[in-house]
Amino acid sequence: MAYLTAEELPQYFPAARNMDTEEVALFLQRANSYAFGIIGGYPPAIPGDDGTNLKAAVALAFEILTEGETAQVDPTNGNITEAAPTRTFNRSDRNAKPLATVDTMLTPYKRAYEEANAPKSDTGVLWLGG
Known about the structure:
Distance between the termini: 44 Å
Number of helices: 5
Radius of gyration: 19 Å
Structural class: mainly alpha
């Protein structure tokens, strides 16, 4: 089970229509896995949310993960091509964590998952000893 399927992806990321099926499958699995890692599992329904926000977050992760990836490595020999930087460089602070926006978008789902799976107690007091 995935948060976002390949059939739903073009609705959230139209450029995926032009991508190879293998690339869509690869990067969509990575995006779904990233979201699963942040959330921790499959969250319960959130009141007022029909699931489109979660799908949009996964689509954004997909977009970030695919951005420039296939143009940087020569598929024949695996060498980095000129599309990638030929020397070391530093990204600006704004881009240091490109998936930080996705993390923020996934926060309500993470909280809902944690609350649904938190241990419950009757009185809020745990008595030790006996």
